[in-house]
Amino acid sequence: MLTKLNEREAVASCERCWEHEIVPALHDYIRIPNKSPAFDPAWRENGHMDRAASLIAAWCEAQPIPGLTVEVVRIGNRTPVILMEVPGTRDDTVLLYGHLDKQPEMTGWREGLGPWEPVREGDKLYGRGGADDGYSAFASLAALRLLHEQGIPHARCVVLIEGCEESGSPDLPAYIDALAGRIGKPSLVVCLDSGCGNYDQLWTTTSLRGLLQGTLDVNILREGVHSGVGSGVVPSSFRILRQLLSRIEDERTGRVLVDALHVQIPEERAAQARAAADVLGASVVSELPWVKGARPVTGDTAELLLNRTWRPALSVTGADGLPPIASAGNVLRPFTKAKLSMRLPPRLDPRKAATALKEALEKDPPYGAEVRFHVSEPSAGWDAPATAPWLEAAVRKASKTFFDRPAMGLGEGGTIPFMAMLGEKFPEAQFLITGVLGPQSNAHGPNEFLHLGMGKKLTCCVASVIADHAARAR
């Protein structure tokens, strides 16, 4: 049996809460440059993470929710975690998750915009971290507040907001272990750190890719030499790097050539991609900021979605050893380093993938060069368990009620390490993974924005699903 929020009251209350309370708080949050530890090694000394945690905790503590407790938890020198609990009327637990750390500034913000200065244009709130993932704590509490305003029962709810997701969540396992007794055993996990195909309906994330990062280091000389002396005799370290990359990726198609990095795509996920392609159409391509005349790797939209969610993909995200053009002399450089980012499909063991990739790159180096691939800690992907009938009905109803459109499911190309961790720890739990990162919201890049209309409707949908979780037949 499903419950029903009073739609009109819920929408009106959510509008007031977002406009008068959440949006002003998000303005203050965006102004804090609380970059994740991977991008700010001096985060403790700078104090921005603590400022962000304090700001969010203070807002949450002020919410008129009976029995609410809010605590900023710190273990040693790890990033802080905000742990909140709301007692429920059912002997069960719902865990809601988000994060408060941010990606770095990135260049390319258009005139009038910047990472640390909030700017609102209609339904878009620009600034770093608003959509990824600062809104999550506010939306979680606002959803629970809606239920209390209407007297609708719900299970005990625990809200966990971590501080190092953008660094791969290295601190999170310690907190999950230390707080295990307070978290309990959730039967529903709600994660608000994912994306949406459009802003017109509720999107649930059915899978996430993993991530394998590392530095490929190619050394051929002990020091640089004049190109007039060395070129034609010494192979360029850059050319060797190109050869190595061609071992693992077809440069014409982008297909990853290491078989151990592929998995069999489940037919259910392929069918979801085809259904999403029918709904999204050309927007899958048009939402990206192409230069004039550029085109995607294929014209098949369903294949593009599967490429983005269930196939490995390589990106070169940084390089050392290449001087700026203005100071680049005629020198044969001694080394080239490249930062590699390999997205891994769900269901793939990331450590086995790391071993296979390292072997492919280091084996039989061209010209006897020194080649090393230094692997960072890889993150596993995640594939959702089979959806329970009650959750499928609840999601469908929420989308119809608050968007007047059917709900859609689709995999995401990013990584949320927490989901793989929880999937292993609570194999019987159901998962509602969703978010506001839709077309052109550009998380991690310039001009990131939070779509406020989506945030408001998503808040109502989360409240509705949590209510239905408590009312389900067990």
UniProtKB/TrEMBL annotation:
Entry annotated with the keyword Protease: yes
Q: Where are the membrane-spanning stretches?
A: none
Instruction: Spell out the SUPFAM superfamilies in the cross-references.
Output: Zn-dependent exopeptidases (SSF53187)
Domain Peptidase M20 dimerisation: start-end pairs: 207-366
Q: Does the record carry Protease as a key word?
A: yes
Question: InterPro entries from the entry?
Answer: Cyt/Met_Dipeptidase, Peptidase_M20, Peptidase_M20_dimer
Q: Tell me the CDD domains matching this sequence.
A: M20_dipept_dapE
Q: Which domain of life is it from?
A: Bacteria
Which UniProt key words apply to this protein? Hydrolase, Metal-binding, Protease
| Protein name per Swiss-Prot or TrEMBL | M20 family metallopeptidase
The taxonomic lineage of its organism, from the top, reads:
Bacteria, Pseudomonadati, Myxococcota, Polyangia, Polyangiales
